[in-house]
Amino acid sequence: MVKNLLLWLVIAAVLLSVFNNFNMQSQTEQVGYSELIQEIQSEQVKKVVVDGLTISGERYDGTRFETIRPMVEDPKLIDDLLEHNVEVVGRKPEQQSVWTQLLVASFPIL
Fold this sequence. Notes:
Layout: H1 2-26, E1 28-30, H2 33-41, E2 45-51, E3 54-59, E4 64-68, H3 75-83, E5 87-90, H4 98-106
Parallel strand pairs: 1-4, 2-5
Antiparallel strand pairs: 2-3, 3-4
């Protein structure tokens, strides 16, 4: 009886997690890099988060967006963001734990 209840709780938690993940993705609009630049220059963008090549953010109307910046450095982007009073947030790249690094390094030995 307890195992059955525990199993159903785990299934419910997994389904809820999957549903929330899909729901969050559907609320974020994918935009092109050029479109993002135009929106910044027309002062529609409130905040951006730069995470490697991914730029996500929020417009003044509350909608969220995400784009992938080109592999080319664009120093004018930061100037445009600051010139149009966009809040800029950077994210530190995630680092692997020591245990993960050891596991990956020892994998060829195994």
